[in-house]
Structure formats: structure tokens, C-alpha cells
Predict the 3D structure of the following.
Amino acid sequence: MPSANEPNSVFEKLGLTENPFGPTPNPRYFYKTPSHAEARASLIIGLECGLGFQALIAPPGMGKTTILFDVLDRFNKIARTAFLFQLQGNSKDFLRHFALELDEADPPSDMVQVQSVINRLLINERRKGRRTILIVDEAQSLSPAVLETIRLLSNFESPTDKLLQIILAGQPQLAVKLADTALKQLQQRITIVNTLLPLDKEQTHRYIEHRLSISQYRGQSLFTADAIASLWAVSKGVPREINTLCFNALLLLAATGARQVNTDILDEVIADFARGELIAEKTRARAYSLPPAASSRATITATGSGRLEFYGFHKEPFLPTPDPSFLCLTAPYRAALSNLYSGILAHEKVLVLTGESGTGKTHVIACLMELLRTGNIPAQYVLAHQWFSSTTYPFSFKMASSHEYPVIFVDNAQSLSQESLEQVRLFATESIAESGLQFVLAGLPAVHNRLTSSGFSSSAHPRDHIRIGPLEQSELGNYIAARIRGAQSDMDLRPIFSTEALEALFIHSEGVPRLVNSVCSVALQNAFSRRERLITAEMIHDSAGRAMSPVTPEEKLPPAVHAPENSVLKAAGVLFDLQRVLRSAKPPSASKPLRRCST
């Protein structure tokens, strides 16, 4: 096969200034699919918010390194950056490589001394007003001992913030290594886990056209529609494989003198690769799809529209409505979602989710319902005050086409009458028509106490009592970044919360998501009135006293509402595979058949 270093004249013959499908991860060619754009934005916002640890985990060829280089380009002028990849050796070797990246001419070989040198270098950078960012690519090749050494690097900090921010990137084997109980402390420090999805057929078309345009091509399309369809089917939407096929197709196009790459040319390229055996990794993601978005509860006024435009939003980021597109896998959310999801698949009859007001219980329910729907597990939602104390219920127990009963989510369950609790108990003990129903009761902590005193037998009493609490201060920046990212159309216009603003926000909200949303919403209004994008501590203090009214029952998630398209939820299968190993999700009971989640 031809070499990727073919003379430029080959490409000039086609009207190109350079090879648009080169093998190197050139950030100039970065193409923003929804999942790639989200991963990039998440990493950038996480760094800007001062997060200590992030991870980017995806199969090979998906574009991880291109995103990392793009992020480095963004921070090179304002931060000290170090990029390490495919490292071999032990912890001492890793530290010496890192010190060399920080321009230490001759790092000592002693472990203690080299750590002291690194600490000095980090402090010097901070005195210059610059953060230090370490990106470790292909981290799945590192030993557990080296990964633990990387965790220890995060202990370098000043009295106010981290001296070092770290991004671990690698293939799915990295998630397996992080599941090791010996690395539990590292697991706990990883604030954001991002993943990438393969391109669909239309994205593949736009991806190819994008790369051609970057190389200054201005003529008719070089690939026919049939060729692109065939190329997508063979490549499975993996960017690296798309590049390889396109590069060789262009060389053959130039050699034959044809005007377009058609299926004949592409078939010949594929045949040269032994019937497509270059596609070694089947990295296609699970085909999750989501229903269309429902309208928000808020009516956007002219002033609101101006604010959205000023900050580059396509919707309000801090509304109290439980919108699954704003899912942020903070520790409380991740634990609640994983344990509820595992319990449902294990056919637990009654699961209980409790938390104080405003901690995000209904948001967890909304996200979980969408995950179940995408897996063809029927789910229905009901508020406690809608549950009638009679034989008529506010929802249907009709079985789905899969012959499975639905999972019933009862919100504000602390308001259930004693008679309603008895009905739940009867269904849970299968004394009514051998019911296959499952219940998730969500509400204030009093829910669990009421169940204990309501005569639930040991077989029906919930074995899984999941509690959700407020955010930790270290997670607040991640939470806000996710809300902004979910509402953002133009990342260059986004509001920036200063470190002092985040500290003030935590003081006023105590990490309660509903209060965080309320204060942030008012703070954005204040900042917009001054036409400022930097949210300061002063704005937070001024906004904290203007709390919004509590969410009414009518503003809770109604049964008909579905989530808008969201690549976090669309990648739910991937993310939950990751979080199952990153967090100790309770394994389902071996004595019970699992629900089948059809994808």
C-alpha cells in the first residue's frame, strides 16, 4: 500500500494543499461530533474550574489524542503543560519523565528527591501565575503502582488550590485497572469520566467534508454518497479507520485520474486490506436513542432570550426542572444511579431513594427512566398525591411487548397514605395476580422509617436503601460545568465561575443542587445586566438572598416528559460499564434472573 508520506503533488493534483487524512492527531482537523465536542468541553471546563483529576476513556481510534492536543493548544499560553504517553518502567521512571517535561535538565534518580524537585517546579509555576496540567495518554499501559504514584502527585497543593491538574486518557482497559480495590483512592479523585461514540453515517459524511475543507479543497465532493455509505459501514464510524480508508482511496483516485471516489475505487481499497481486516477493533457503541425533547417549564422572555444569546446558550442551564440532559455523574448521582439500576436489573421488588429536599432525587429518577426506556424496560412515573387510595390507579399496569411489567417510580413518597403503602406492600409480595411490578420509592428520609413501621415483611422490605446527599465542594465546579455544557451552543461565550465564586456558592448552597441552581440562575441575570461573563464571588453573595420559590408538585417530572438528545445519556451503556468498575455498584443477586435490557 502507498505510504502516508506520499509527495504533496499527489494531493495538489486533487486540489488539496496537504493530506487531509494523515495518521497524526492534528487538532486543526478536529471535528466536533456531539460526543467529541462534549468530551472536549468537559475537559476544558474541568480544567478552568480547577478540577484535580479527569479521565477520557474510549476504544482505540476514536480521537482521544486529537482532543487532548486540542485542549493542550488552548492552555499552552496560560499554563505549563506536560504530555506523557506510552510510558514504560516503574514509578521512578515516570516521575523522571514528568520532571523532564517540566524542563528539569537532570532529574535525580532517588524517588524522594525527584518528588521534591517536581514540587519545587510546580510551586515556581504557580508563583508565575500559571497552572500546571499533566496529560497521560495510553494510561491503560501503566502499572497499578505507577497509577498510584500519579494519585500521589495530586497531593501537591497550596493552601487554596491544586498545584497540578491531571487528565488520564486510555482505552477501556484503563477502566478495568481503575476497578482494582488497591486504587480506590484514585477512583474517588476522578471527578469526570468522559467517553466517545463512533460517528453515524451522516456524521461520517460531514467529517470527511470537514477534513477536505481544512486542506483547502473547494471543488465538487470527492466521494460519492454510495462510497461514503460503504466507507461508514466498513469503518464502523471509527475516525482512525475512516482516515485510513479515505487516504488510500484518494491515492487510488489520483492514480486512476477519476473525478470522484466511487464504490469501485473503495472496494479496491478494501480488497487491498484483505477484505477490510484493517478494522481490527469493533468499537461501535450501543445504539441508544432518546425521544424528542419536551418544552421547559420556563417561558423565555425577550430579556431571557438576550441572556441566552449573550452566553451562547440554547436553553436555560439552571432551571429547577429535572432535565436528564444536564446529567452530571458526581459521586452522589453516580452511586444512586448505579445502585438503583443494578437493583432493577436484579428484580428487587422495592427500592428506596431518600434525600433531603433539593438534593436531586427527581433528577436521578428522570435519568434512570430514560436509561430504562432506551433499554426497552417499561417505566412509569407517579407523584404520591396522584396515587388514589382505591382500586383505580393513576397509571397502567399493562405489560410491554417484552411481557415485562413496568418499573413504577413514586416520587414524594413520604406523602403516601397508609392505605397506599399497604397497596405497595401487596404488590411487592406478589399477592395481587402474581404481580411482577417493581417500585422505586423516592422521598425525604422519613420514607424509610414509614416502610419499617408499615408491616413490610422481610421478603418485601427494601434491601436497597439508597441515600443521596449534597455535593462535595470539590464536585461543585464539575456540576456547574455539566449544566453549562448541556445548555451551550457556543463554548467561546460561556460564563466562567471564578474559584472564589465557587467557594462562595458552596457556602450559600451547602452543596444542595436545587440551591446551587437557584443562586446560579440569579447570578447569571446579575452578570448579564453588567454584560460580564466572569461570575465573581460578589455576584454570588448578592444573588444568594434572592432564592427562587420551591418546585411545586406540578413542576415535577410528568409521565409524558422525555429527555432531549444528550450524548451523556446516549452513551449510557458505555458510561454505566465504566461506572460499574469505577464505583462499587452492588452486584445483582445470582438467585434471581436479570431483566434483559434490549439495545
The longest helix spans residues 239-256.
